[in-house]
Each structure stands twice: as C-alpha cells, then as structure tokens.
Input
Amino acid sequence: MVMANRIIILLDMDYFFAQVEERESPQFKGKPVVVGADPKEGKGRGVVSTANYEARKYGIHSALPISKAWQLCPEAVFLPPNFELYSRVSENIMNIIRGVVQSHRLVHETILEQVSLDEAYIEINPKSETRNSKQTWEKAEKLAQEMRKEIFRKEKLKCSCGVGPNKMIAKIACEAAKPNGVKVVTEEEAEKFVESLDIEKMPGIGKKTAAILHESNFRTVGDLKKLSEHDLEDLFGKRGSEMYLHVRGIDHAAVETEREAKSIGKEVTFETDTRDPELLIRTFESLAKQVAREVAEQGLVFRTITVVCRFSGFETHTKDKTLKKSSSSEAVLRQEAIKLFLRFLTENQKPIRLLGVRAKIAPKSNM
DNA sequence: ATTGAAGTACACG
DNA sequence: CTAACGCGTGTACTTCAAT
Output
C-alpha cells in the first residue's frame, strides 16, 4: 500500500546542546564545551550529555561519566543542561522543518516523527508516477538542503541529514554526513552501503549484542550475511529476524507521526550511597508526588507501579505491583510504591545509590 | 493453550 | 588498577500461576 518506495530523511542537529550553548555564549566557540552533570572537581556522579568537537578531541563523548571527562580535560567549559532553552529551540526547528516540507509540495501531508529534541524523520511520499525516479531522489536531497539552510538562517544552528529508502538507512547515512552535511543513499545503493560497516553501527545492535557476535568473529555487517534468518532468530529472537533484513539494507519500520506515553517515571541518584531512612523515605515521597502530578497533568491513569532500586556496586532491581483498578491518585501511588520499596530494604542490606518510581499508563476507560 | 503479573536485559538519545 | 557510569522511555524475553 503506502509502504512501497518511500524516501525518508533523518534530520539530526550536530552536537545539539553544546551547539546551542555556543550560540548563546560566543566566547565558548573554539573551546572544548561539555554539557552534562556537574563535574564537582572530578567527583561528580553523572554523565556527559553532549560534547562539542573540540571536546571530542580529548576523547569526551555523550554518556561518558563526567568524572572521566574532567580527567581528560579539566580546562573544558562544563555547563549544566538548560532543557527549557533546548525545548524552545527544538520547537522552532520542528516548525521550520514543517514549513519547508509543506512549501515543497512533493508531499500532500507532512509525515514527521520527532524522535528526540534534536532529531526527526520526514517521510516523502511522491506521486506514484514519479516514485523512485532519479529526479525524486534529487528533490529529496534538495529538500534536505533547504531544511538545513532555513534552520541555519533562522536559528544559526548546524545539522546533518541522511536520505534513504527507510529509517535505518537514513539514520546511518546521517551519521556518515556529520558534521554539517547531507548524504543520500538510494534503494539500489543501500545494501552495499551497509556492508562494510562495523556491526555496532547498525541500529539495535548495542554493546552486548556486538560482544556476542565478536565472540564468533563477526565484525562487519557483511560478515553477518553468513547467518541464515533461522540462525539469527535462534540467537536474538525477534530482533534477529529484523537484523537479517537490516544487514541487507531493508527496514520496514514505519514513520510514526505520534506516539502516546506508555509510562511516566522519575528517578534520582544520591550524591553518596545511603541507607538513611529519613532521606530515603523523603526522596521516595517526592518521586511519587512528581510522577502522580505528571500523570494527572496529562489526564492519564495508571495501573502498574514500578519501583527501581540501585545498590552500591550498580546492582539494579525492580519491583512492581498491578492494581485491581486503574487510578490517578497520588496517595495510591505513594502507598503502593512505599510498600514495594520496604521489601527492598529488608531483602538487601547494601547502601542505595538510586531510587526510582514509574507508573505504567492504563487505558483511560472503564475504571 | 492463553493471558497476566513480576522481574530482567538491552537499547537509544 | 578496565574503572569511571544519569535519566527517561521502549521492547522483548522468561518464569510462574491462573484461566
């Protein structure tokens, strides 16, 4: 039906948080900038959100522990994330994208999936007679360039675009295009394009999966073609069958215009691991309160409550409870969550590093 | 056999 | 001295009990 011969663009801002900070404070340009947790003279417990390219020269990157980043480059500019600012900028960018796409009349209806503050997929559904023609790919590339140009003109921010026949190819092409570029990979080029990549570049293959595959000397995406669909399914289940298609340049995932929240949660890491009952209970009530408020704000209800507890040594466990009837009550959330939490306290003696509360959203109907 | 609940593992930005 | 390691969210899997 509408699936055949799509063209999909992934637009991704370059080092988004750090780039916004550079724009707001031009004196940082040319210096290493690290946006993330407070480094606290090397004692901080958080991680890096985004590092600009100068900081990356020191080996600093997203998700790196901030203490390590401090070791690598203590003279870097360390900044806390300003999510309010990034959210405003993000809204502007999404609006620019919508504007450009609509003015291009390659599409009747704008199919845009916002993946995060700084990333969006745009699906082009050309008229059937022009589908998959060379000109259509060229138009898609022009569209990508124009979105980038408008974002730079209006927001003074750089981004990159990947253009491909599906989301996976668009995503990988975008990585190849960075920084500040566009890369087009057509349907015919897709399989060859992924073949020489290291397997961990493939979306869905993270550290653990890569490690398993490396054990058997599978290094590149091309290597994985030696495995049958059956082999991959035995090894990795449902993800395995997807992998079988991915390594051949195929991905059927749809561009989803809107997704609704399935769960809402809050968690915090303590400055130092603790068993202080006052602190634990206080933290806990505050988390439950925040979660309940957010659920209520969005006019939702929950039925399953999950408590997360991370102990010294990073050992992490969850407990959950599903209620007979769904609820939106803060008191219910707090009480059920505390019951679950007390079981942790008796089962495990170790100091606690992190606490979290999560509410699984239930259908809002018959309560 | 199927469904629901509890708990774990892994991935991603 | 290969450890440092947030937060929010989603999907898939396993195990066990009840239907």
